[in-house]
Write a structure and sequence with these properties.
Elements lengths: L1 E13 L2 E8 L2 E7 L11 E6 L4 E4 L10 E12 L3 E8 L2 E8 H6 L7 E6 L5 E3 L4
Antiparallel strand pairs: 1-2, 1-4, 2-3, 4-10, 5-9, 6-7, 6-9, 7-8
Length: 132
């Protein structure tokens, strides 16, 4: 599970749904919530959790994709299995992981030192109050 620090920039609520604008790894991101929120406010530090399997990788920016959370990253390590590859990424001072198929890793010709974009859907991000 990826667990990264973030800051809330803005909150929008309507019809029992919530969209939170965040700064994550120095980049603007959004998180979706359908449950009642703690009394969070703009400027508050939070932690964001998301599964390694919820991270897609692209070798170029994807401005026409509906996934708006795009973190520019540098690949620092790749561990290949028979079916899947665990890609360790560095973005904005944080380390995160993506687990993708070995076939995708090979077809994208991913390698250490390469710049990629980690794509994460808004509904895959879970927010927690930071641990002291």
């Amino acid at each position: 599970m990826n667990r990264l620090p973030a800051t809330i920039r803005a909150l929008h609520s309507a019809d029992g749904l919530h969209l939170l604008e965040l700064t994550l790894c120095g980049q603007p991101c959004t998180a979706f919530a359908s449950a009642a929120l703690p009394p969070w406010q703009a400027g508050q530090a939070v932690e964001v959790l998301f599964r390694e399997l919820d991270v897609a990788l692209s070798t170029a920016p994807c401005p026409t994709l509906s996934i708006r959370n795009s973190l520019p990253c540098r690949i620092v390590a790749i561990r290949h299995g028979a079916l899947f590859s665990d890609v360790t990424l560095h973005s904005g001072g944080a380390t995160l992981h993506a687990v993708i198929t070995r076939r995708s890793c090979d077809s994208l010709a991913l390698h250490e030192g390469m710049t990629v974009y980690a794509l994460i859907k808004s509904n895959a991000l879970q927010l927690l109050e930071p641990t002291p």
